[in-house]
Structure formats: C-alpha cells, structure tokens
Amino acid sequence: MKKIAAVVAMTVISIGVQATDLKEPTPQQQLATTCNAEAHYRELKGQDRNRFVSSCLSEGRKRQGEVMKSCNEAAQYKKADERRKFMAECQRG
C-alpha cells in the first residue's frame, strides 16, 4: 500500500512540476487537480485519501482512453495537420 501512495505522490509532484512549464494544463493535469480537489472536499486523509486519488486517476484515465478512441475513429480520414488540429480539439472536449 505504501508503494501505491508513493506512486500517487510522485505522479502529483511530477504533474505539478510540469504545470509550471506549460501554459495550459494537460488533460492528465486537469484530472489530477480535480481528483485532489474532490479528496480535499471529502476531507480525506492518509490512506483513505491515497486510495481515493489513485482510484479517481485510474477511472479518469479510462475515460480519457475512451475519448481518445472515439477521436481517433472520427479523425480516421483526415490528413496530417488537419488531423492534428482535430485531435487536439476533440480531446479537449
């Protein structure tokens, strides 16, 4: 369990470091922010917080994977630059 907590902590830290380098947060950074805000709102501490954040991030990545799959299907016949622009917009929602 301590390993999971360490992985979650490292993920959050690395996301925080990356956030300072980017102008707009990535979907993963937005997800981490949302999960941490929800854990704070629920007043979770220690192991309960770590379990919740880990689960929240996992579920969020599954949803992001579904979005990526549907965007890829929609962009199937687009070419190079047009596809890149479409994918960027599609993934933002």
What structural category do the secondary elements indicate? mainly alpha
Task: Give the averaged pLDDT, no decimals.
Answer: 82
The count of DSSP E runs of length 2 or more, i.e. the number of strands, is 0
Helix content: over 70%
Basic shape: elongated
User: What summary fits the major beta sheet?
Assistant: none
Q: What is the CA–CA distance across the termini?
A: 34 Å
Number of domains: 1
What order do the helices and strands follow?
A: HHHH
| Strand portion | under 5%
Uncertain runs: none
* Cα gyration radius (Å): 16 Å
| Number of helices in the DSSP assignment | 4
Q: Could you please describe the fold and organization of this structure?
A:
This protein is mainly α. It has 4 helices and no strands. It has one domain (2-92). Helix content is 83%, strand content 0%. Helix 1 crosses helix 3 (46-74) and helix 2 packs antiparallel against helix 3 (46-74). The longest helix is centred in the middle third of the chain and has 29 residues, at 46-74. It is elongated and about 50 Å long. The chain starts with a helix and ends with a helix.
